[in-house]
Specification:
The structure holds two protein chains of two kinds. Chain A is of the alpha/beta class. Chain A is about 40% helix and about 25% strand. In chain B, β2 and β3 form a beta hairpin. About 10% of the residues of chain B have low confidence. The chains are: A alpha/beta, B alpha/beta. At the A-B interface, α8, β10 and α9 of A face α13, α16 and β15 of B.
Amino acid sequence: MAGRFRVVTDSTSDVPSEWCRRYGIEVVPLKVIFGGVSFRDRVDLSTDQFFSRLARAERLPTTSAPAPGDFASVYERLSRDCDGLVSVHISGELSSTVDAARVAAQSVEGFPVHVIDSRCLTVCVAFLCRVAAEAPSLEAAVRMVEERVPRQRILALLDTLKYLEMGGRIGRAQAMLGSVLDVKPILGVSDGRVEALDRVRTRNKAIPRLTDMLRRDLPVERLAVMHAQAPEDAERLRAVLARELPDVEVETGEIGAVLGTHVGPGAVGLAYIKRK
Amino acid sequence: MNGQLLKQALLGSLAWLGAHQEEVNRLNVFPVPDGDTGTNMLLTLQSAVEHVRESQATEVSKIARIAAHDSLMGARGNSGVILSQIFRGFASAVQDKSELTPLELADAFDEAANAAYRAVNKPTEGTILTVARQAGRSAAGAAQQRGATSATVLKAAAAGARAAVERTPTQLKILREAGVVDAGGYGLQIMLEGMLRSVEEIQAELAKIRPVRPAAQVSLDLPEEGWGYCTEFLIQGDGLDVDSIREAIAALGNSVMVAGGSELVKVHVHTDDPSRVITLASKFGSLDRLNVGDMSSQHRRIREEAEPASRPTPAVPSELRRNGIGLVAVVSGHGLVEIFRSLGVDAVVAGGPTMNPSTQDMLEAVERVPYHEVLLLPNNKNVMMAAKQVDGVSAKAVKVLETHTVPQGIAAVVAFRPDLPAGENLTAMSAAARHIQTIEVTHAVRDSRSNGVTVKKGDVIALINERLRHAGKEYVVVVQEALDGIGAGDYELITIYCGQQVTEAEATRLTEAIRGNFPTLEIEVQSGGQEHYPFILSVE
């Protein structure tokens, strides 16, 4: 069975379950810890369950990367019925997940596991998984994914700075965002780094900002609208984009627990891969 | 008329305006605690005579030039700026004269009026402009009479001004409705009458003049070593050649900006040897507003100097902005100051209703910001013109945003992007300011009728986007009317900035009422701490 390979990712990539079924993508869960109780993301705790707990929580949950052993056992199992793996993960600058995957990859001797740091997160990683899964061979998959890493971008409107502040993750964005007034930040992720791109005070103003920013990056080969518990805004954004970009299939993705811990409910955004 | 007589005339006008300050202040079109025209004109005039007072110059040109320069630096409020332009026009008409004949004096009044007209984008009749013009015309008529003297010309100018002031309500509907004459025009009339009294040797009021605040000193400390010094100054002189100055300066540093005209040139350069630049530049003319900063330590030092210990310490950005643009805002009230600061404003100039900062005040703030380009937010219509003068007297490139209210200023600052150049920021910030709805709530300072709204002294009144729209007895009712008036239900967010005099109970009552009436809107309440306006609301 020469050339048969599988795709592995982690739960932060927010891969729609339909894609997992269709492409056989294997998802290794991160852990979400609420008040000392640990849950496997999207296994013990669905995204909806997570956000309803988050709304009630007095303190933010913490998240932790999978242990190398978690990856190793998945790699081990998959090594029995295919010839190699592409394992695509959340940016190493944001999580140690990819390091755990690398350690695990070395423990599976004689079986090729190509671990790729996406330098991005959420639906962009899901897109990379799909690119890999649709590739004709393991080598082609690795090449096609790596070649797209620098072309990915995430744009997201956060409804509030509260969660980012509570999680201590404001970092470089602080100068622009630390404010007495309630401002809603528009953050961008490209080349592994999160940065504050803009800020607005109302959600209605954010949608044209997001689409303006996307317009500067056109054309795109993959595009998704994503949201954390804000399906109506996501649909509104999707409708605008579908009208404007009739040739692009606009997917819809849900932001999961790990990213949701930092962006909070109400976040809405875009994930895309620019055309070469 | 010689220099010393002009000096006495100016001192006389200052004394007379001082005596009539409150009278001019009361001629306010809107019954709001705002736009103290008399105070603004008096403070501007005080600046104008600050150095004139000590001058022994006998040439009329010298006295006029000093008054023109100093009035520009001290200009406050729109009326103050127009006044400074009147001085400027007068000075340019007499620039090479040591004495004036009556005819030349009349011509100078005429040129003063022309300069005032040129200072305003859309000149409106029935204002100080009309009064200045009529004073000039009457003066010209008197100057042609046989036996004309400076006194007869001044007398005619004052009489012409008085007649023009009386006609202002026929020219402007808002004056007619409010039952007042134009305040700025009346102030000018008073000044001319004061000059006349003085020239007729009446100087009894001089003792009452209040001192003017001294201008802050510009520090010039040169650290011994460093990779570069940001050096900025103005060159003043006659027949300056911008191109040759630029060429000379460019040889001594980089980031060179040299701009201006034959009398005033702005210079900005990054250099390793500021003293050489200064020596070189002083050969072209006299230097003013000299500012040398060590670029590495500049930001920190300026912050420390600019912050008195009593003020809240803002978060100091760890690095300078990429686009090299600084933000300066005119705002008062501890809460509002902190909001502007936290949104990234680098320096704040105290000011607002009833307290319009001078061009000099804004200039000092602009100069201490560690950026060469500065966006200035006046946040009050009456500050606008003085703000627009800053670019002309600063070595920095200063652009003024059309923010007439605090919410407009906040909307503009929120839209500021530290990664974009000034042009793009100006466009986006102006658009943001235009799209916000402002409701200002205050108490009427007198009985009045304007915009068809009848108001009794003490009433709660609401201005929507600067226009008086609603009046009543209670905050809750008046604010509700104002919110309905702008169709607030179609918006997303109401922000309420509570003033200094508002009690917590009043604030809670208003907030709860708004929440009840607009359940789908987000409501944010902030302590603004502003004076005179119990509530300022923005709707967006």
